[in-house]
Design brief:
Pfam families: Exo_endo_phos (PF03372), Methyltransf_23 (PF13489). Residues 5-208 form the Endonuclease/exonuclease/phosphatase domain. With 446 residues, the protein is an alpha+beta fold. 22% of the residues lie in helices and 29% in strands.
Length: 446
């Protein structure tokens, strides 16, 4: 999915600006457009863009989606922020006050509360923040501007640190997103920002496009932000498609948007014996850490649970699929919880975060979570060989069955663990490495 964010400086009512914007969207193959200050007056009738469906908003914040996709859920938690739900990813279209550092400070405090309420769901906040995050990001006549100061920069820094977000377009030297003459001198600012979760930053590409404000095809005075995220948007409904084909600039390949139901339980293997990693638990981890109680989280048919019990451990299993007979949640916490080949069959980052948060609930303070996944070295060659179709950040391993696979390396497991308050253990446990698996032993703070 490609998302564009632009402050349109209230110019969309101009037919020439609207035509240039439409051409720009088509040229860059944009799927979702979020805009700040699209038009005036504030509550005028929404403006149509060829090939796009108006979704929601007003003259402060508005969004459109390409007509081949379903209309996403939206809400307005505050006047300065619009929430879009794009499959597993939440976007906050943001436009902070342009006149007061105190107001921006208050809005940033509120934005932090709003994003915190997402409970770890992957969230990007982007738009016109009217803040140059660093002094070098805001210059007047070549010197640091006094438009921003610690009053609004401090809460922005706190938001980034507390929510583990990255100012994804911060470079040295900075790329300015607005350049004007003010009081007879040049004024340059990088105030159009995209704040991205740190654990997803490697998978999400963010860049500026300055042609929106420079050159013959310019249509605003702000640079645009282009964000590429591994999101597969759902296709338009039958009702939404009634006007689709007349407006699309190119034919649609409907096979790219196949609707499939996820069936992760169908990846569970029937084993006569325990998995190799269950044997690692019994032979290495349990003796080293003095493990007495263990939960196999996502146990499938339970062969590993039988192995743990046969080895003298007090072991339980849990799996959300009712057909495996282990769907009742335990009522206690454990020395060790295992999560083996579960995360890699879950079809998006939000479901993986929820799974690891759920597993962490059953780890006692000071206890451990042992996570094992299929690695990219295992999954990617199989996907290429079998021509698996991409979906979100992985692949449909079988669209007929509704099964998904993604290769997850060790560092990604650790990043997911951070979302559940877990950290890599500092104890030296000699885990046997495998090129086909990612694995991490995480500890729950006391």
């Amino acid at each position: 999915m490609r998302l564009a964010s632009i402050n349109l400086n209230k110019r969309l009512g101009n037919p020439a600006a609207r035509a240039e914007l439409t051409a720009w969207l088509y040229h860059h193959r944009v799927d979702v457009l979020i805009a700040q200050e699209p038009w005036k007056p504030l509550h005028r009738t929404p403006i149509d863009l060829a090939g796009f469906r108006p979704v929601a908003g007003d003259g402060d914040l508005f969004c459109w989606i390409a007509e081949r996709f379903a209309t996403p859920p939206t809400s307005r938690p505050d006047r300065f922020a619009q929430r879009l739900e794009l499959a597993w990813l939440v976007i906050y279209n943001t436009y902070l006050d342009s006149g007061s550092t105190t107001t921006r400070s208050s809005q940033l405090d509120q934005l932090q509360k709003i994003i915190t309420a997402e409970q770890g769901r992957p969230t990007i906040a982007c738009g016109d923040f009217n803040i140059a995050p660093r002094p070098i990001d805001g210059l007047h006549n070549g010197q640091a501007s006094n438009f921003n100061n610690s009053t609004d920069r401090a809460p922005l820094s706190a938001l980034l640190a507390d929510l583990n977000l990255v100012d994804s377009t911060a470079t040295d030297p900075p790329q300015f997103t607005i350049e004007r003459q003010h009081a007879g001198a040049p004024s340059q600012f990088r105030c159009d920002l995209a704040l991205v979760p740190a654990h997803l930053h490697p998978a999400i590409t963010v860049r500026y496009d300055h042609t929106t404000r420079k050159g013959e095809q310019s249509f605003t005075d702000h640079s645009g932000i282009l964000i590429d995220a591994p999101v597969t948007l759902p296709p338009a409904t039958d009702e939404e498609q009634e006007t689709l084909f007349a407006l699309l600039p190119e034919p649609i390949d409907e096979s790219l948007y196949t609707r499939s139901d996820y069936q992760p339980h169908k990846t569970a293997m029937t084993r006569a014996h325990s998995s190799p990693f269950a044997r690692t638990v019994v032979d290495v981890i349990a003796p080293q850490l003095g493990i007495a109680t263990i939960l196999d989280h996502g146990c499938g048919r339970g062969s590993d649970v039988h192995h743990y019990r046969a080895s003298g451990l007090d072991a339980d299993g849990w799996d959300p699929h009712p057909g495996f007979g282990q769907a009742i949640e335990p009522e206690r916490q454990y020395d060790l919880v295992t999560n083996i080949f579960v995360l890699n069959v879950l079809p998006d980052p939000w479901q993986r975060i929820q799974a690891i948060q759920h597993a962490a609930r059953f780890v006692r303070p000071g206890g451990h979570l042992f996570v094992v996944t299929r690695s990219p070295a295992d999954i990617d060659p199989r996907a290429i060989s079998a021509n698996w179709r991409t979906h979100h950040d992985g692949y449909w391993s079988s669209e007929a069955k509704g099964t998904f696979q993604k290769g997850i390396p060790t560092e990604e497991i650790i990043a997911l663990g951070h979302q559940a308050g877990l950290r890599p253990t500092t104890q030296q446990i000699p885990l046997k490495t495998s090129p086909t698996a990612g694995q991490a032993l995480l500890v729950k703070p006391t």
